[in-house]
Amino acid sequence: MKTARIVLVAVGVLVLVVGVAVLLSDVSPRRYLGLGAWLLGALVVHDAVIAPVVLGVGALLRRAGRRMPGGVLVIVQVALVVAAVVTALVMPEVFKRGIGTANPTVLPLDYGVNLALFYVGLAVATGVAIAAYLAVRRRAAVGASED
Amino acid sequence: MIHEVLQSLSRVFASPARSPRMAVVLGRLLGAAFLVCMVTGLYSHAIQEPQPWMVFPTRPIQLYQVSQGLHITAGIACFPLLLGKLYAVQGRLFETPPVRSFPHFLERASITVFVASSIVQLVIGLLNTYQWYQLFPFPFRQTHFALSFVVIGSLAIHIGVKLPVIARHWSRVPDGSRPDNSSEPPAPSTVSVGGVTGRVLRWIDASPRPVSPGASRRGFLAAIGAATAALVAFTAGQSFRALDGLNLFGARKQGVGPQSLPVNRTAAAARVEQTALAPDWRLTVSGPAGTRSFSRDELAAMPQTEVVLPIACVEGWSQSATWRGVRVRELAALVGGGPESSVVFQSLEQRSSYARTEMGPEFARDDLSLVALELNGETLDLDHGYPARVIAPARPGVLQTKWLSSLEVSET
Question: Taking a C-beta distance cutoff of 8 angstroms, is the pair B58, B394 a contact?
């Protein structure tokens, strides 16, 4: 294990140095500031925006869902995570399509409408999953009381 | 005070989904996806900027289509995997004390580099699929190439540092015997925190957990899995025909474009409309045995070959099409070229790094490599490279030079 760790760290440092060397040789120095801002911005956006919002929404859900059956709460949480991730990746497409693309074959779909369709499908799937979960629970409860 | 807030925060962060085991489960998937991106990315880079000694396979004809389709699809799958992985280790962000020792400092520094570079890498890769270059003040290709080494290097360091934890949690352990089960919330701090922070924390603590740890863990994995599956299912149709019917969110759609084929760079963008439509256009072919030139009618009068080949863009989209034209090797033979000849193609386009491309002998002698004049049974559309363009198997679209003006055949 110790050898493997040393090798991994050593190879990692080597590859990292190669990456920085390629960056310094291939990207012009006047671009460093912009790239640095992006790297820093990525940390800020994740650590100071995404993480606290996820934490807050999670806490709210926990509080709001305390009278829900546990399984229902989990299913709702799963649906919200899926909706949030897909929205985060599709909204830039909606926006870019709005301001125009290099040619009509780039972003050719109506992403806003498709996103709405996706929400409808997700809501239906969530409803079906909750109904199935509650049905199984009821049957288990009935089975237990008959015993 | 800060110490108490951090401690309370780590209590709030404590969740069954935030365990070393979860970090290992997601880390494996994320590592595999990053590896796929790195290998396919290096292949794409090598074929675009080959070293003189490099030889590339020309079969299967879908090789580049599949490799680049995997690159983009795995990259998209990385978004939910990375977000899930970061969520699983979020509590670490508020560790107290923030730095314990020099190795601990190095560990946190390498993670910082990894997180920042992989977020930027994924975001600029996604934006590149719809050519939104205005958004970042640095060149895409060079930065994406360099950052790939930074990402993989810092990932290797991270794996090296965490290897004992990874080994301990590689396979499932029964809940009770988990060695350092951080899913158990730490004992509540006896020091009460005042002010708004304290009230918020007490309010959260007042909500009992309605869900068992097992259900919570399964729910978290289901959320990340479903988000990944949804993104892949609804975008991969841009690269893989079988999923075309599900393509809701892909940056391209098969069958959309002139002659039912997407376009990356139009004739207007390349500023070749006048030169490409000029009635006196001729294709100059030069080689060891001299120089000849052909009008479009003369090329069309030569023996024609029909091939079905995909056009596969570095941006991930691809589509198969029927092309008709003159074999590259038959044109090369007219000026003394042989099976070991390579060919340099020059486009009418003036200001592009891909206006001049080189084709190695393995592609130039291939039966399927054409100077194409027709696409899907019609004269090549101006945006697809009229009057003549290159099409060859297992190569990126950016090398399938459009609006040809000359071929230079040379022995290698």
Answer: yes
Please identify among residues 199-228 of chain B the ones whose CB lies closer than 8 Å to any CB of chain A: 203-204, 207-212, 215-216, 218-219, 222-224, 226-227
Helix (H, G, I), strand (E, B) or coil at B121: helix
Q: Does A70 touch chain B (CB under 8 A)?
A: yes
Nearest residue to B40 via CA among B316, B253, B319? B316
* Paired residues of B409 in beta bridges: B343
Of residues A27, A59, A81, nearest to B227 (C-beta)? A81
Listed in order, strand segments (DSSP E) in chain A are none
C-alpha to C-alpha distances, A83 to A50, B319, B365, nearest whole angstrom:
15, 29, 50
State mean pLDDT over B194-208. Answer: 62
- Chain B closest-CA separation from residue A124 CA (Å): 15
Q: Which residues of chain A have pLDDT under 70?
A: 146-147
Our CA dihedral for B218, B219, B222, B223, rounded to 10 degrees, sits at: -150
Nearest of B45, B64, B44, B42 to residue B394 by alpha carbon: B64
Q: Is A99 on the interface with B (CB under 8 A)?
A: no
Closest-CA residue to B355 (of B403, B308, B323) = B403
Domain boundaries, chain B: 2-174+192-246, 263-411
Cα–Cα distance, B335 to A111 (Å, whole number) = 51
- Contact status, residue B404 vs residue B348, Cβ threshold 8 Å: yes
B333 pLDDT band, cuts 50/70/90, is very high
Going by DSSP bridges, is the β-strand pair B378-379/B370-375 parallel, antiparallel, or unpaired?
antiparallel
| CB-based contact A15 B152, cutoff 8 Å | yes
Q: pLDDT at residue B45 above 80?
A: yes
B204 and A59 in contact by Cβ < 8 A?
A: yes
- Tell which wins on pLDDT, B122 or B411: B122
Cβ contact B279:B290 at 8 Å: no
**Structure tokens, B328:** 């590259």
ipTM comes to 0.93
Query: What residue ranges do the domains of chain A occupy?
Result: 1-51, 68-147
Asked if A144 has any chain B CB less than 8 Å from its own CB, the reply is no
Q: What's the rounded Cα separation, in Å, for the pair B120 and A84?
A: 19
Amino acid identity for residue A33 in this structure: L
- The set of residues, in sequence order, having a beta carbon less than 8 Å from that of B4 and lying 6+ positions away, is B189, B191, B193
Domain B263-411: which CATH number of 3.90.420.10, 3.30.830.10, 3.40.50.10540, 1.10.8.50: 3.90.420.10
